[in-house]
Every structure is written in structure tokens, then in C-alpha cells.
Amino acid sequence: MPRLLEGGISRLAEHGEAGHRTLIISASMHHLVGPIASRLTADGALATHPAFDDNGCFTGATTGIVTFREGKLAALDAWLASADRNHRMPQTLWGYSDSHNDLPLLERVDHPHATQPDAPLRALAESRGWPVVDWRLSRQLA
Question: Of 39, 61, 37, 36, which is closest to residue 48 (Cα–Cα)?
Fold first, then answer.
């Protein structure tokens, strides 16, 4: 939580208040991302799941979709398929990222945003006319 930026938390809350379903999609492990998403009242978290052995010990491997690069898009598409089956498919998708590694995901959403972007993503966002925001300019949470 201390590394989260107030501007990002506010934007997530704005989407929630507008009735949008919200997800946090991260390449980090789900046991880290899930509680943060819950605390921020996001509707869910899509993240990499660790694999465990028969004794419940972490093996060092992963299971399921590894949510890095194209894996984030695969996880989102699986989530959207589930939402469609439950008749809760979102009409519009918004996306926010700081990394060029998330380009497949940003190209999939209707409203991509570059947030504190790395140099390759900044250049791409500017060339495509995507909003570029820097939430570091607002107060970082303590």
C-alpha cells in the first residue's frame, strides 16, 4: 500500500462510483495483488498464481495464466468470457499502465492511458494520442 499513488487510487474510486467494474491486473503474484485489490474495493484481481506441492509448500513454479505481457490480455479475455456468460459484460474498457510490456493489454481496451510511462510507452502513447498522466505529481501515500 505505501507504494500506491493517490491519483491512481482516486481514479479507481471514480470508476467504481461511475458503476464500472474494476480490476487490477498485475504480473505480480496473486497473494500480493488480491489483498490490495480487495482493500481498494476493486471488483477483482488478475495476477499470477503460485503452484504448491501436496504439502502446501510453494514450489517456485506458477499455475494457470502468467499475467505478464500477452498473459495479461489472456487473463482479461478469460475474465471477459466469464462476465459474458454471467450477462455482466462491460460495455467499455479502460486501461492504465506504466510499461511498454502492457502494450497488448492497452491495445485491447477502448480507453488506454499511459501512467508514469517508461520511455517506449510514452513515445507510443504520444504518437497515438493516448492520455499520459503522472500520478507521482500528486501526494504519494505514506
Answer: 61
**Residue span of the structural domain in which 59 resides:** 6-137
**CATH assignment of the domain containing 86:** 3.40.50.1000
Which set of grid coordinates corresponds to residue 127?
504518437
Q: Which one-letter amino acid corresponds to residue 91? A: Q
pLDDT digits (tens, 9 = 90+) for 3-61: 788 889 999 999 999 999 999 999 999 999 999 999 999 999 999 999 999 999 999 99
